[in-house]
Design goal:
- The chain is an alpha+beta fold and 110 residues long.
- It has one domain: Alpha-Beta Plaits (2-Layer Sandwich), CATH 3.30.70.
- It has two helices and seven strands; from the N terminus they run E-H-E-E-H-E-E-E-E.
- Strands 2-3-1-4-5 form a five-stranded antiparallel beta sheet, covered by helices on one side.
- A hairpin with a 2-residue loop joins strand 6 and strand 7.
- Helix 1 runs antiparallel to helix 2.
Protein backbone atom coordinates (compact mmCIF):
# COMPACT_ATOMS: atom_id res chain seq x y z
CA UNK A 1 0.00 0.00 0.00
CA UNK A 2 1.19 3.50 -0.83
CA UNK A 3 -0.10 6.74 0.66
CA UNK A 4 0.42 10.23 -0.77
CA UNK A 5 -0.44 13.35 1.20
CA UNK A 6 -0.49 16.66 -0.66
CA UNK A 7 -0.94 20.21 0.61
CA UNK A 8 -1.26 23.31 -1.58
CA UNK A 9 -0.85 21.23 -4.73
CA UNK A 10 -1.94 22.12 -8.27
CA UNK A 11 -5.16 20.52 -9.49
CA UNK A 12 -3.20 18.85 -12.30
CA UNK A 13 -1.11 16.94 -9.74
CA UNK A 14 -4.18 15.77 -7.81
CA UNK A 15 -5.84 14.72 -11.05
CA UNK A 16 -2.79 12.69 -12.07
CA UNK A 17 -2.66 10.84 -8.74
CA UNK A 18 -6.42 10.16 -8.81
CA UNK A 19 -5.90 8.03 -11.94
CA UNK A 20 -3.90 5.50 -9.91
CA UNK A 21 -5.04 6.03 -6.31
CA UNK A 22 -8.23 6.72 -4.40
CA UNK A 23 -8.51 10.22 -2.90
CA UNK A 24 -10.08 9.35 0.47
CA UNK A 25 -9.84 12.92 1.81
CA UNK A 26 -8.79 16.16 0.17
CA UNK A 27 -5.13 15.68 -0.74
CA UNK A 28 -4.87 12.17 0.77
CA UNK A 29 -4.40 9.39 -1.80
CA UNK A 30 -4.22 5.63 -1.13
CA UNK A 31 -3.31 2.94 -3.64
CA UNK A 32 -1.82 -0.51 -4.03
CA UNK A 33 1.19 0.06 -6.28
CA UNK A 34 4.32 -1.90 -7.11
CA UNK A 35 7.68 -0.21 -6.47
CA UNK A 36 8.17 0.77 -10.11
CA UNK A 37 4.82 2.55 -10.33
CA UNK A 38 5.31 4.15 -6.90
CA UNK A 39 8.64 5.65 -8.05
CA UNK A 40 7.19 6.84 -11.37
CA UNK A 41 4.33 8.60 -9.57
CA UNK A 42 6.74 10.25 -7.13
CA UNK A 43 8.76 11.58 -10.08
CA UNK A 44 5.52 13.07 -11.44
CA UNK A 45 4.77 14.60 -8.04
CA UNK A 46 8.21 16.25 -8.10
CA UNK A 47 7.66 17.52 -11.66
CA UNK A 48 4.14 18.88 -11.17
CA UNK A 49 4.58 20.38 -7.69
CA UNK A 50 4.99 24.13 -7.38
CA UNK A 51 7.02 26.10 -4.82
CA UNK A 52 4.13 26.04 -2.31
CA UNK A 53 3.42 22.31 -2.57
CA UNK A 54 4.19 20.04 0.37
CA UNK A 55 4.02 16.28 -0.25
CA UNK A 56 4.69 13.02 1.58
CA UNK A 57 4.79 9.50 0.16
CA UNK A 58 4.58 6.54 2.57
CA UNK A 59 4.87 2.87 1.61
CA UNK A 60 5.18 -0.52 3.24
CA UNK A 61 8.76 -1.74 3.74
CA UNK A 62 10.45 -4.68 5.44
CA UNK A 63 12.27 -2.75 8.15
CA UNK A 64 11.75 -2.29 11.89
CA UNK A 65 9.14 0.41 11.41
CA UNK A 66 7.31 -1.44 8.64
CA UNK A 67 7.25 1.59 6.34
CA UNK A 68 9.42 4.19 4.65
CA UNK A 69 8.60 7.70 3.50
CA UNK A 70 9.78 10.62 1.38
CA UNK A 71 8.95 14.28 1.66
CA UNK A 72 8.91 17.20 -0.73
CA UNK A 73 8.59 20.92 -0.09
CA UNK A 74 9.05 23.18 2.89
CA UNK A 75 7.56 22.07 6.16
CA UNK A 76 8.22 22.49 9.86
CA UNK A 77 8.62 18.71 10.13
CA UNK A 78 12.05 17.37 9.17
CA UNK A 79 12.81 13.62 8.85
CA UNK A 80 15.79 12.59 11.00
CA UNK A 81 17.44 9.14 11.00
CA UNK A 82 18.35 8.07 14.55
CA UNK A 83 19.94 4.63 15.07
CA UNK A 84 18.26 3.25 11.95
CA UNK A 85 14.81 4.57 12.92
CA UNK A 86 13.20 7.51 11.13
CA UNK A 87 11.86 10.18 13.45
CA UNK A 88 10.27 13.51 12.61
CA UNK A 89 11.69 16.62 14.22
CA UNK A 90 9.29 19.53 14.48
CA UNK A 91 10.82 22.96 14.05
CA UNK A 92 9.45 25.90 16.05
CA UNK A 93 7.24 28.28 14.07
CA UNK A 94 8.89 31.34 12.60
CA UNK A 95 8.50 34.46 14.70
CA UNK A 96 6.12 36.96 13.12
CA UNK A 97 7.81 39.97 11.58
CA UNK A 98 7.62 43.10 13.69
CA UNK A 99 5.48 45.81 12.15
CA UNK A 100 6.34 49.44 12.25
CA UNK A 101 3.38 51.71 12.94
CA UNK A 102 5.05 54.56 11.10
CA UNK A 103 4.31 56.89 14.04
CA UNK A 104 7.62 58.35 15.23
CA UNK A 105 5.97 60.63 17.76
CA UNK A 106 5.97 58.66 20.96
CA UNK A 107 4.21 59.86 24.09
CA UNK A 108 7.41 59.39 26.10
CA UNK A 109 9.32 61.78 23.80
CA UNK A 110 7.34 64.83 24.95
Amino acid sequence: MTIYSLERSPQKLRGMLSRYCLEVRAGLFVGRLDSRMRELLWEKVEQLANEKTSAVMIWRASNEQGYEFRTLGHDRRIPVLVDGIWLVQQQPPKAPAKRSTGNRNNATDK
